[in-house]
Structure formats: structure tokens, C-alpha cells
Hints:
The protein is an alpha/beta fold.
Amino acid sequence: MKDTAYSYTCAAATERAIRAVPPVWPLATSVAVNPYLGQSDLTLAQAAARLERVAGAPMTMPRAWYAERIADGRITEADLAAALAATRGPHVPAGPDALRAAALQERPAPATLPTLADLAAEATGMDWPAIIAHRIGAWAAGQFDEGQALWAAPQRRGPYSAWRATASHDLTPEIAGLSGFAAHAEAAPTEARDAIVRAAQRLALPEAALELYFHRLLMTLGGWSQYARYLHWQAELSEKTDASAVDLLAIRMIWEEALLLRFGPQIGDRWEKVVQDYARPAEPDADHVIDAILQTAAERAAQREIAGALAQDATPPRTARPALQAAFCIDVRSEVFRRSLEAVAPDAQTIGFAGFFGLPLEHRGFASDIPEAHLPVLLRPALKSRSGNAPPEDAETAACIKARGSRAWNRFKFAAVSSFAFVEAAGPIYVGKLLRDALGLPRPAPEPEPAPVLNPDPGPEARVDLAEQVLRAMSLTGPFARVVLLAGHGASAVNNPHLSALHCGACGGHTGAVSARVLAGLLNDQAVREGLRPRGLDVPGDTLFLGALHDTTTDEVTLFEDGHAAPGHEDDLRKARGWLAQAGKLARTERALRLPRAAGPGAIEKRSRDWAETRPEWALAGCRAFIAAPRHRTAGKALNGRAFLHDYDWRQDRDFGVLELILTAPVVVASWISLQYYGSTVAPDVFGGGNKLLHNVTGGIGVVEGNGGVLRAGLPWQSVHNGNVPMHEPLRLSVCIEAPCEAMNDILRRHASVRDLFDNGWLHLFALDEAGQMAQRYIGDLEWSCMESATEPRKLAS
Length: 798
């Protein structure tokens, strides 16, 4: 009976430990992920106590970072006092003087709890954690391969069974001194969960220690456990199950079990004490609390800057018909381009909306059989689209044959039996390509894919419903310009395995071109427009919707005019192209001030073709705010490419359905982005992607540093640091929404996971008043405090 109860406890602890690990998407569809996803029910200080134990990860910057800001006045006395007043519980310093003094004393290094492998390494002098990471990594690269391997591992069994078959013939552990390991792996229980229970019992882990110890072991596997969590995530989206994460934990537990059996007499006493530490709750100490308060003070300082910008005089709302309307993604890079476009074309109107434009698409590209999810990873596809018409036409058939031939040629080129002969015989043919890439010369532009269409067509009524939902969610209800651009975004870079992370996160790591083009086709449909008219949306007959693509690396915009008759719009499009070109020049000039080696004409464009460029752009580094309000609240204000801008007018929002969508989708996606940059900056060894100069792509999934070991998840160091100082200021996102507090409270009541983000301080929430200024601060438990002015709060609470 005791064993059965222990097994149930192990199973529950396993599930909780797996959910405490963030998922990581494969490189082809890489999106930003909140590395603290499993800790959203904890405060910053509580999460710091836990992650210090399981990963040695700091939750904040070094104290000197805060001390510098206190010394130069960026963090004021009022910020320190406000942060102190907002904190409840033990270990709070007595006042600002004590907090300033603490900032001058660097905190101790994180005290990670050792695994049994760590103790074995201390006792034997052999680096068992590194050996384990290398052997599991080498096996996992083949097991989870997504098409990179020329000789793929057989997938007839699950990961755990496949590993046992491999480990039972692996002599590396035996050579290193772990005698009998192959036999131990072969004799392990056939079910992963049984192996976890047996190992936990042999390690004498009490029930109170299980979850923390399981979490600790999963963190030692780095990105491999996170990839397994991704498989778990994807299975749950499809209402299925996936046991890869359980299997990985079982594998790691078997290693621990084998080390105990081999070196138990040498480490037994020390292990008993460590087990007791795992069984104790992870409570924050004084250093964790001080660090959290200093972080809050830094965020208060940033919020004063945001409030000051919003307090500037707003432009009056637009009533006349715009000369051009251009909808961009809410991505912070779009803020720079939108501001530039409005500067060169004052009569133009820009709009901010999530880059998938409200279309949850599963898309099949031209000459491809692989479906792509062009939507936020939080959602499931509800529509299907394809480039070109079905059945495949001659051009698509020819393209399929060409693509298959290219893949076969590449496999021959890189295969072990032919690669050397290939270089000797055909190598000179590639001299031109090698020189072109080395010198960063322009490549031939690829042929654009045929216009994507919804396929299957959802039907006339569904098309009208979809168009209405999107237009109202965008607050695009009139007046309509003669030309309305729907500009998705993507990036251009070469020799960059993380390219998809520079694309649109709202489009699942793809560019926004497909979503923009599908929506343009839908809104140009005369039958759809006729169906919209009785619903209060009268789109003029001379309005033309066009899909577009904003290249965030070069700030060039491509218009997709194919398939859209544009009689009488030639002059409108000529003006639009001119404005976009001027706006791109302004945006490049502004961004060049931050990019290294970006001076001179053509420098920005050239770096997009440079295969040695580790920083083609800064992407979303610097993001600090999310603002949902009418555009005239933010137009022309100095937000400096640091704000996600979502157009929203609550007065047009019936039953606050759009507000609910904003809080539960774009805000959550923005929080994932913000916290990934945060984690990659404050804890690069744990939550960062490592050094680009050392990266090797493995399995088509991710990168490792060197020739093996743990998969590195998160942002590479070059994405957040310029070599001297961090280029991302790690701040939790400030969400500013112009909407009634009661409406936001109603939504938070219905969505506990979103409420956790605000109640536990992972996001800050502010309500804007009728003048567009920060008027109310959310203080948790569905309560708000009034702010006396644009920059100073009157009432503070935790």
C-alpha cells in the first residue's frame, strides 16, 4: 500500500516538475517563450528561491546594475520608497537608506542544490554531470531529429525504450568508471514511470523532495527537457498525450541510480543531508527579497518614463478619410516604422494589430506538403490556406519535382560515402557562390509564391463573419482609405539558425506575408463587402486592400499586388511606395544608432547579407511596454521602439470581447517575448542560447555549443549584448490599456492564468484615462490604486 501511494506521489510530482519547465520550439518555427512559465503562480522572490536551488539561475541583474542607476538618478528616492511600500512579508529593508546600502553589496552566488551526479564528481574527480549531458545529448540528437540527419534513428519505439536499447551497448560510462552501467540500463524497468519510482526509492527521496529533485534533474538536461515539454505542449493542444518528458526524467533518474549503486559508500552521508535540503520548502531569503525590491524600483523608474511620454499632448483623433492606411504588427520594431511613416505622410494612418491578423491559419506553401501553423502558439488552427489552387497545377508539380531533386542532391553532397569525392569533383563549381556569400553580394531574389487562399473555403457566411471579427478587433471600422496596406513582418539574414525567431511570433515563427495576403483577398471580395454592409461596416467600392511585408532587418516594405485588380489606384500606389521608401530610410537611420558597424549608406542592408554577422538586427531587445489604445494617444511620442502598440477603442468594443482577446492573447504573447529577453539577460547560462560563434545545429531542433551536450534554448548572447553592455534592459512588461478597470477585472476573474501574471508581478497593469494618461495601477487581487499624476502614484499596495 505504501509503494502504491508513493507511486501516485511520484506521478504527481513528475507532472508538476514537467510543467515547471518551459517549452522550446524547434528552430524552423522558433518563437519567444517565457522561461518562467512554470513559476507564474510565484512572486519574483519566491521564483528566485526555487530556481536558485534547481538551476543556479539568478532572477535579477547583479546589484551593481541597480547601484549604478541609483547613483546616476535613474532610480530615484521615490522609486525606492514605492518599491519598498509595495512589498509585504519578511526580510524587507527598513527604508530607502538600507535598500541603497544593500545595492552596494553584491549578493552571494546562487547556491544550487547538488544532484547525486555532482556528489559523485566531487568524490571521484570525474565530471559525471558533463558525461551524462554528453551521452544523453548525443542520443537525443538522433532520437528527436527533425530531418537533419542523413541516417535517421528508427522511430519504432518511444524515447525511453529507444534509450535503453542504445545505453545497453554504450561502453562510454564503463570506460569512465561506471562499471556495469550497460547491464543496469538493460535491466531497468520497461516502463519509464516504474523506473522513476524505483530510482526514487533507491535514492531514498521522501515525498516532500520529489518535485524539486525531479525539476532539478530536468534542468540539468537544458533544452532537451524543454523540447520534450514542447512535444507535451503540442500534444495537449491536439488533446493527445506525449510521454517524452517523462521518458527523459526516467533516463536521468537511471543515471542517478547507477551512480548511487557504484559510489554509494563514498557519498552516502553527504547524500542524506542533501535529500533533507530538497525536502525543505524553497522560501525566499533576505537577498531574494532585496533583489526583487531593487528590480521593482527599476521598473518604477521605467514606468515614470512611459507615463511621461503618454502625458505629452496627444494628436486629435482622425475624422477625415486618410490618404493611406497601413496596419502593422504590434511588434516593437513596427513602432519605429509607423512613427517614421506618419512623419513623412501626415495624412496617413497606421494601425497596430497582432501580425497574424486574427486568422488562425494552418498553411501549406507552394509545392510543399508540410503544414505550417501561422498563428500564436497559444492557439489551435481553425482555418486552412494554401499558396496556389488545388489540385496542383503544372507549375506546382514542376516545383515539387525540383525541390525533391534538390533535397536528393544535398543528401548526396553531404553523405558520408560521397562527401569527399563530391568536394574533389564538384567543389570548383561552388567557387562563385562561396565568393558571393563571403563578400555579402546580393543574391537573386526568389520567385514570390502564388497568392495564398483559404482552402477549403469556409463558406460565404463564415467569410463575412471572419471579416467582421477582424475589422472590429483592429478598430478598423471607417473611414477607409483608398489603399489599405496589411503589413506583416519578417526578417532577412543569412547563416543564422535563429532566423525564425526574428520573424513574427504571432505567426508561429513565420513571416506575416501569408496572413496579410489571405486577409487582403478576403476583404477585397465583393460578396464579403456586401455582407458587411448590413452589419454596419461599409467599405467603399474604391478601397483596395493589399498585403505587404515589412522586412525588420532592412526596413524595406514589399507590396503584394498580384491577384488584386487596381484600376484607378496607380497614383495611390505610387505615392504609397514613395512614402514607404522615405519611412524606411528614417527607420534605418534611427536603428543604425544602436547597431554596431551600421554607419554609412547601405550598411543596414549589407549586414542582412553578411554570413559572418552575428547581430543583423536587435529584434525586440529593449521592449518594456504594451499599450492598447487609439493611435492618437501614442502618435508622435518618443517610445523609441520599446512598446508593443495595439490599436484599441473600448467604446466600439461590444461586451468587451476584443479586450478579452487582447488580454488573453497579444498580452500573453508579449509577456513571453519580454520575459524571454529578461531571462536571457539576467541568467544567460541557464535561459540563454549561448555564443553564436560556437553554435552547431543539431537535429534541426536547436543548437549546442561545440560538438555536443545540452541543447541551448533562449536567445543567443549576441541578441541581448553588444560585447560591452547589455542592449536589453531586463524589465517586466508594463501593460497600459485604455479601458474601464471593471471590464479588465471581469476578464481577469475568468482567466486565472492571466491573472497570475499580474497578481504575482510578472506583468504590471495600468488603466489609461480619457486623456490617454496612466491613471490607475493594478495592485493585485482585482484592486487598483489611483495615480495622483502622470508620474507619481498616490496610493501603494502589494
